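Progress against Task 2.4 (sequence-to-structure conversion) is shown through the following example record, which the project officer requested during the mid-term review.
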Amino acid sequence: MECRKNENMKSCACTYEPCSRKGVCCDCIIYHKNVGELPGCFFSKEAERSYDRTIEKFISNLKNRWTADN
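Structure tokens generated for the chain above:
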């Protein structure tokens, strides 16, 4: 399967500038999985900017989004 980095960059939510995995979703997912985290695209824009990619932060962020929507 061919990587569609240029296409992926259009929707990549990562704001971490020295990231070498931007647009290469498979590498990003593998990296974050190996360190017990989730990629930035799983988070709201505000939470993504904190660079806290922990599962706990994801759950907290998700609960906050549900609360805001209801």
